[in-house]
C-alpha cells in the first residue's frame, strides 16, 4: 500500500485516493488525466473533458467542458476544488449552475469518495443541455429544443436550413465570381473559392443535401413567412439577384436575408 514519499501524520494506509483514481482510470481510460502530487501533501489534479452522451456521435455533441478536480490532502473529509475549463456552447449562467450543482454534490457526500459521481453528474447535465447557447447568426433566432441545427468544425452553430440557404447562395456567388474573373483573366484568391463560416470565416465542411433536408426552424419569422407562402428561398434569390455587386461578402448576404424578413 505504501507508495513512498508521503510520510504524513495521517498514515499512508488510510489514504484511499490512489485506489479511487485507479478505478476511475479503468473506467475512463485515456480520457482521464491525473497529475499526481510529488508528496501526499500536494493536491492531485484530476481532469477529464466531458461530452453529452450521444452514443459517440460527435456531430450531435454541441456542448462540452473540462472538469478539473483538485483533490486536497484531507479528501474525502475535505471536498475537492471543482473548476470548469474550456466550456463550449454553454452560457456563463449554465457554467455557474453546473459548478454549483457539482459543489452541492461534493458537500453532501463529504467523507465518502465522490469523484466518480461528480464526473457522471457533469456528463448528465451536458446530456440534458445539449443545445448550443446563443443564436443562429443567419436568422438571429435562438436554438430551440428539437430544432435541427449544425455544428461546424470551428464550433459555430446554425440552424441547418439557415446554413443550407447560406451555402447555396454562396456557392452561386462563387461560381459567378469565378466566371467573371476568368473572363478578366484575374487570379482568384483561394479564400474566395470556398464557402466560409459566416462567423469566423474558416472554410466550411458541409453536405448541402443533408442541410436542405432538415426541418425548418420553429421560431424564426424568416421561416414562418417562408412556410406560409412557401417561397422564402425564391424570394430571397430574387432579392440577391437584384444586388448589382457580385461581392463575395458573406455579411451582405446575411444582412439581406434579415432585412427581407424581419421588418414585418
Ligand atoms: Zn437560423
Ligand atoms: Zn466558425
UniProtKB/TrEMBL annotation:
Domain RWD: from-to ranges: 19-129
Domain of life, per lineage: Eukaryota
Keyword field: Cytoplasm, Metal-binding, Transferase, Ubl conjugation pathway, Zinc, Zinc-finger
GO terms under cellular component: cytoplasm; nucleus
EC code(s) of this entry: 2.3.2.27
Catalytic EC class: transferase
Gene3D superfamilies: Ubiquitin Conjugating Enzyme (3.10.110.10), Zinc/RING finger domain, C3HC4 (zinc finger) (3.30.40.10)
Entry's localization field: Cytoplasm
Residues covered by the RING-type domain: 136-201
Reaction equation(s) it catalyzes: S-ubiquitinyl-[E2 ubiquitin-conjugating enzyme]-L-cysteine + [acceptor protein]-L-lysine = [E2 ubiquitin-conjugating enzyme]-L-cysteine + N(6)-ubiquitinyl-[acceptor protein]-L-lysine
A GO MF term: ubiquitin protein ligase activity
Pfam families reported for this sequence: RWD (PF05773), zf-RING_11 (PF17123)
Family according to the record: Belongs to the RNF25 family.
Protein name in the entry: E3 ubiquitin-protein ligase RNF25
Source organism of this protein record: Python bivittatus
